[in-house]
Amino acid sequence: MTSRGKQRGATQRLGIHAEAGAWCTIGKIPQPPADVLHAAGTPRLRPGRLRPLGMAGAVLAVPFMPLLMLLTLLSNAEEAVKRSLATEDEKERLRVQDEGDKRRDATIAERGLDRVFDGNWHGNAGQFLLRWYSHSTHHQRLILATQDGIVLAAPPQRVTVGRVKRMQIVARLPATEATLVDPFFGEFETRMVLIRFRDGSWLRVETEEPRSDLHTYLLRQPLPNS
User: Fold this and answer.
1) Which of 166, 38, 192, 43 is nearest to 114 (CA)?
2) Could you read off the pLDDT of 176-207 as tens digits, one per residue?
């Protein structure tokens, strides 16, 4: 089944119609100031621990780590050899690609988008981030764009398998409160999507794959002020 088909099945389980959606994660939530943390009721700031099945899987994966590292090194070496043997046209294409990657990374840093959120704990994004793991201890969210706004779904607790089967709606953001934004409007291919709130604050999420269903959907939307 395609990712679009899986998404359709997931939204049917939730009883909603979504224009687009993708499973997303957020980066590590920074430690808020003590007064902010206390005012919010000392909420949870980390995802739940892996359950025994997930822990067992992690333990079983340890012996394969050296092999994975070796495969990574071989892949890097292969890429270096390919670059050295590339034709002039291929080298030019790779040079343009490298320059694009550097420009993307520089733009991300310049706009402060290398952070999880805009940094204002008293803004709407900061307050929403404080409640992120209170809604669900799972490390992922299915973020759905609907006609009425944004819906976030996840299992109530962290799971290693069966996330779709166990998920439920954990948060809703009306269109009057927040919107989904590709901060680069398709200029760069990234996994990044912003939840931008009406007060200008924002929260960054990362989709499982670049140019996700959410990115494709956002590219079809009119540009701001257009």
Assistant:
1) 192
2) 999 999 998 878 888 999 999 999 999 999 99
- Tokens at 90, concatenated: 């291929």
pLDDT in tens, 49-91: 876 655 544 455 456 667 767 776 666 666 556 656 668 777 6
First to last CA, the chain: 37
Residue 193: strand pairing partners: 205
Burial 101-138 (b: 16+ CB within 10 A, else e): eeebeeebeeeebeebbbeebebbbbbbbbebbebbbb
Polymer length of the chain: 226
Residue 101 has pLDDT above 70, yes or no: yes
Q: For residue 94, what pLDDT is reported?
A: 67
- φ, ψ (nearest 5 deg) of residue 109: -65, -40
Q: Please report, as a single letter, which amino acid is at residue 174.
A: P
* Tokens standing for residue 105: 């990374």
| Residue-wise DSSP of 7-50 | HHHHHHHHT---SEEEEEE--PPPPPPHHHHHHTTS---SPPPP
Q: E-assigned strands of 101-140?
A: none
Type of residue at 40: A
- The H or E element that residue 90 is part of is helix 88-110
Angstrom distance (rounded) from CA 35 to CA 124: 17
> In terms of DSSP bridges, do strands 141-146 and 20-25 run parallel, antiparallel, or are they unpaired?
antiparallel
